[in-house]
C-alpha cells in the first residue's frame, strides 16, 4: 500500500499494523529524514513536490515487483510532500514477511526503486537560499544492482 | 487537445504548471518538446537540456512516443524523493 500525504506518520502505529499478522516472523522498517546537509550545507528546511496520480501508480508498481521477488505479508509505503523542517520524517517503508532475509531485501529494494522511479522532487532551503536537489548516480547504481 | 504538465525546477523557471496543445497527426513527445522550446529562453533553458524526462499518461516514456488527442504529457527533471 502506497500513500502520499502532507501530514506526519507514527512509526510505532505503522509497525503495530505490520506486526499484527501471526504468520509474520520479521518486520523491517526504514525511515528517511530531513538532515542538515545535502547538495547544500546548513540545510534548515525542505519542500517536496510530486506528480499526483503517477506517484501512486509507481509506488503500487514497485510493491508488485517486490512481491514477485520475495514472499511478503504486508507492505506499507508512506511519502510526505509539502514543507518539512530539519529532522522531520520524509518517507516510511515497512515490510513484513515470515523470513527476515526477504523483509530486509524487499525493504531495500523498495527504497532503491522509490528513489529512482517515483516522481518526487526535493528543494532544500539553507542560509544561501533554495536549491533543487540533483539526482544522484549512486541512487541509480543502487537500483541497477537489483537487475543484475 | 493534449494536456502538458511541468514539475519542479521546470515549472518554477517557466512560471507555468500546465498548458494545452492541439494534437496533430504524428506528433511525438520529442516534437512537442521542441515546439515548446520555441516559446522563449526560459523554455529553451529547461526543456532544451538533455536531462529532462517525459511521462505520457503517467508512465515514463521514450521521446519517440506518438501522442494522441486527450493524452496527458508531463516534463520533469530526474526524480529525487526518498
UniProtKB/TrEMBL annotation, chain A:
Keywords recorded for this protein, A-Z: Molybdenum cofactor biosynthesis, Transferase
Highest taxon of the lineage: Bacteria
EC code: 2.8.1.12
Matching InterPro entries: MoaE_sf, Mopterin_biosynth_MoaE
Main enzyme class: transferase
Gene Ontology BP terms: Mo-molybdopterin cofactor biosynthetic process
Reactions listed under catalytic activity: 2 [molybdopterin-synthase sulfur-carrier protein]-C-terminal-Gly-aminoethanethioate + cyclic pyranopterin phosphate + H2O = molybdopterin + 2 [molybdopterin-synthase sulfur-carrier protein]-C-terminal Gly-Gly + 2 H(+)
Pfam family, one: MoaE
This protein's pathway: Cofactor biosynthesis; molybdopterin biosynthesis
Gene Ontology molecular function, alphabetical: molybdopterin synthase activity
UniProt subunit comment: Heterotetramer of 2 MoaD subunits and 2 MoaE subunits. Also stable as homodimer. The enzyme changes between these two forms during catalysis.
Family, per entry: Belongs to the MoaE family.
Protein name: Molybdopterin synthase catalytic subunit
Higher taxonomy: Bacteria, Pseudomonadati, Pseudomonadota, Gammaproteobacteria, Alteromonadales
TrEMBL record, chain B:
Coiled coil regions, renumbered to chain: none
Pathway(s) this gene product operates in, as recorded in its UniProt entry: Cofactor biosynthesis; molybdopterin biosynthesis
Superkingdom, taxonomy of origin: Bacteria
Keyword Oxidoreductase assigned: no
Record-level GO cellular component terms: molybdopterin adenylyltransferase complex
Keyword flag Nucleotide-binding: yes
GO biological process, one term: Mo-molybdopterin cofactor biosynthetic process
Listed InterPro entries: Beta-grasp_dom_sf, MoaD_arc-typ, MOCS2A, Mopterin_synth/thiamin_S_b, ThiS/MoaD-like
GO molecular function: nucleotide binding; transferase activity
Keyword terms: Molybdenum cofactor biosynthesis, Nucleotide-binding, Transferase
NCBIfam families the record matches: moaD (TIGR01682), moaD_arch (TIGR01687), PRK11130.1 (NF008347)
Family of the protein in this entry: Belongs to the MoaD family.
Name of the protein in its database record: Molybdopterin synthase sulfur carrier subunit
Source organism per UniProt: Ferrimonas lipolytica
Gene designation per UniProt: moaD
Amino acid at each position: 500500500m502506497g500513500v502520499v500525504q502532507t501530514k506526519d506518520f507514527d512509526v510505532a502505529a505503522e509497525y503495530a499494523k505490520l506486526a499484527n499478522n501471526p504468520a509474520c516472523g520479521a518486520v523491517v522498517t526504514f525511515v528517511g529524514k530531513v538532515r542538515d546537509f545535502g547538495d547544500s550545507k546548513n540545510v534548515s528546511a525542505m519542500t517536496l513536490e510530486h506528480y499526483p496520480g503517477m506517484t501512486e501508480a509507481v509506488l503500487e508498481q514497485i510493491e508488485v515487483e517486490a512481491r514477485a521477488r520475495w514472499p511478503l505479508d504486508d507492505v506499507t509505503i508512506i511519502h510526505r510532500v509539502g514543507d518539512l523542517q530539519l529532522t522531520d520524517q520524509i518517507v516510511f517503508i515497512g515490510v513484513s514477511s515470515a523470513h527476515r532475509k526477504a523483509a530486509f531485501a524487499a525493504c531495500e529494494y523498495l527504497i532503491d526503486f522509490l528513489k529512482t522511479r517515483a516522481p518526487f522532487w526535493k528543494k532544500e532551503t539553507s542560509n544561501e537560499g533554495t536549491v533543487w536537489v540533483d539526482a544522484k548516480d549512486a541512487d541509480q547504481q543502487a537500483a541497477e544492482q537489483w537487475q543484475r | 487537445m493534449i494536456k502538458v504538465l511541468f514539475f519542479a525546477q521546470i515549472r518554477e523557471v517557466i512560471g507555468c504548471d500546465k498548458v494545452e496543445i492541439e494534437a496533430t497527426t504524428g506528433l511525438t513527445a520529442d516534437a512537442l518538446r521542441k515546439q515548446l522550446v520555441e516559446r522563449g529562453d526560459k523554455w529553451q533553458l529547461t526543456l532544451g537540456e538533455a536531462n529532462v524526462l517525459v511521462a505520457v499518461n503517467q508512465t515514463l516514456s521514450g521521446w519517440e512516443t506518438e501522442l494522441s488527442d486527450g493524452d496527458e504529457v508531463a516534463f520533469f527533471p530526474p526524480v529525487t524523493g526518498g
